[in-house]
Amino acid sequence: MDAVPALEEPLKKVLGPATAKVMAEHLGLHTVGDLLHHYPRRYEERGQLTHLADLPMDEHVTVVAQVADARLHTFASAKAPRGKGQRLEVTITDGSGRLQLVFFGAGVHKPHKELLPGTRAMFAGKVSVFNRRLQLAHPAYELLRGDAEETVETWAGALIPIYPATAKLESWKIGKALQTVLPSAQEAVDPLPESLRAGRGLAALPEALLKIHRPHTKADIEDARARLKWDEAFVLQVALARRRHADAQLPAVARRPKPDGLLSAFDDRLPFTLTEGQQKVSAEIFTDLATEHPMHRLLQGEVGSGKTMVALRAMLAVVDAGGQAAMLAPTEVLAQQHHRSVTEMMGELAEGGMLGGAEAATKVVLLTGSMGAAARRHALLDLATGEAGVVIGTHALIEDKVKFHDLGLVVVDEQHRFGVEQRDALRGKGKQPPHLLVMTATPIPRTVAMTVFGDLETSVLDQLPAGRSPIASHVVPAADKPHFLARAWDRVREEVANGHQAYVVCPRIGDEEDDPKKAGKKKSPEDEAEKRPPLAVLDIAEQLARGPLQGLRVEVLHGRMQPDDKDAVMRRFAAGEADVLVATTVIEVGVNVPNATAMVIMDADRFGVSQLHQLRGRVGRGSAPGLCLLVTEMPEASAARQRLNAVAATLDGFELSRIDLEQRREGDVLGQAQSGTRSSLRMLAVIDDEEIITEAREEAAAVVAADPELTGLPALRTALDALLDEEREQYLEKG
């Protein structure tokens, strides 16, 4: 690998140990190259030169004026109780008007020495009002000496980079450090192949780095951004393309279903026909399973689009071909539920080796952490002998004790809840790498899928199966219109009177105070601001049972209950023996009770957009229409209310996931999907830069196909090593 000495120089050699330590600890910057890639978040314009007579409020301005008067006052304050506080007041004039400047605390010493009456200088800051007079607090200033005209123009017009900073290191100090290392940018080795750069008219890397840190014009910033976005998109897509290329070289057993085996017996039993989407996606999966390298496919489907059916058919195809299939679920509740619904759908086909089992039947076993020892031993034996063709479980499946006879397919449900390590450990259980199908009900915009799951091919299920009902969603503003909330509980009673059931979802369980670790926790600023903690399941259940839902059968479900108790509650609710289930988000994924038609989400503003969409998908699963009421106390103009209005306005999960991404920082979304590794995207915005990501993916695939080891592109290899920090490299390695 060609080293890039200037950019690999440790910062402590260049900037001194104290600054370097803060940069390493708080910003994760260790080398000159790291610092050069620490881009400005935005740029301040010092503002056009303004006459003091016409200063605009709340705007950044630059004025040229003369100091008329400067006075130092001392005062007492909380920080300086014995009258030791200092305030410097400076009055300046430019002939058209006067303006007061103020400096406080330690910031008074330098201006007190320099801003003497008669001194001319440029001052830049934000205009504010104090005691009904305009002022600039702590303005930046530059003294004018000699030929001032040129200096004034360039200083006022300059774009000042504002860097992502920390309390320990202000933006301007980072800017100063960058001045020191900027000459090294000339030695930056360009990762983009020359043909690509020239073909797209992109600036060279050294030029882009100079322009991003020291722009003369806004056009400079645009040029630099366009170039640096390409770097990030391209290097990342090359890493993913190499991953796909390496996977394609791995051996796997091709699994083709028998013409008259388990799969066709299962299809014959189905009381309905598959949707067009299910048929199309199944065909893609069967094509992958029939090849001799492992399938890596992401199956995205709206809540209730029938992903489980598609996954089950893939599992049966593998069993037909003599292999075993494992489905990994994120929680015990969900594993138990998948097991129940799979055995119900399969009927006697799930009773392999038992009396009454069908001829082509196999065994379907459940494996979770809380199973009794005897049941567990039994399940492990069925897996090791190959008696069980299908196993459904939690990460208990990953433990060393679990041995498979011949693992051919792994289905992972709800991708973002599984660490990459877990996916990897399960894949290691096959004699050869098994095929992999990842399911998610969180719609992921195409570009995010390409950026985060770029090593997986993507299939999308976007139509709902026949017989599914639409869900009406409404925001219930409990604070502005309390009678709306009363009406919401009436609606729940009406649904129950019509023979249906309802969910009430709360953000919190309500027994946290018993937990010493949580009791001492500081409240978040939002909680402090709202002066009340989020509503809790245990409190709300009690209030409802005594109040608006009196006489109905109200049960609770939350994550801290014993697994058996949880399962018992879910069974009673599914059997119609409870009318209302007050729960936390444990019901968010996969809980399937077709008779539940209404959902009331309390403090809905405390949930993310995608989460609300997930929760809402639990109703309207039968033939009766669904109703989802989003209860909030947030005022009408707030961002939280706008978010809820967006959820109420559309059932399109892809549209909502875009809104979600635009409102949250991208890093959260990428971080969540990357199992905790930090996003290496500093410049690329996944939603806005769709075009760049798509083009970069095509270019990367072509480069890797022609030269998988990148032997002809040493600079690109260097950039790969630099951009993909170790954690992320592992993430991509494990795919």
Strand order of the largest sheet: 11-12-10-13-14-9-15
Helix-strand makeup class: alpha/beta
How would a crystallographer describe the biggest sheet? 7 strands, parallel
How widely separated are the two ends?
24 Å
Indicate the radius of gyration in whole angstroms.
Answer: 31 Å
Mean pLDDT: 81
Strand percent estimate: 15-25%
Tally the helices: what do you get? 29
The percentage helix is: 40-55%
Shape: globular
Number of strands: 21
Low-confidence parts: 514-530, 665-679, 729-735
Q: Which short descriptors sum up this protein?
A:
21 strands; disordered C terminus; six-stranded parallel beta sheet; seven-stranded parallel beta sheet; 735 residues; 29 helices; alpha/beta
Please describe the topology of this protein.
Layout: H1 5-8, H2 11-15, H3 17-27, H4 32-36, E1 42-45, E2 60-75, E3 85-93, E4 98-104, H5 109-114, E5 120-130, E6 133-137, E7 140-143, H6 148-157, E8 159-162, H7 171-181, H8 194-199, H9 205-213, H10 218-249, H11 262-269, H12 276-289, E9 296-301, H13 307-320, E10 324-328, H14 332-346, E11 363-367, H15 373-385, E12 388-393, E13 407-413, H16 420-427, E14 435-440, H17 446-452, E15 457-461, E16 471-477, H18 482-497, E17 501-505, H19 516-519, H20 525-530, H21 537-546, E18 554-557, H22 563-574, E19 580-583, E20 596-601, H23 609-616, E21 626-632, H24 639-649, H25 653-663, H26 666-673, H27 690-706, H28 714-723, H29 726-734
Parallel strand pairs: 4-6, 9-14, 9-15, 10-12, 10-13, 11-12, 13-14, 16-21, 17-19, 17-20, 18-19, 20-21
Antiparallel strand pairs: 1-8, 2-3, 2-5, 3-4, 5-6, 5-7
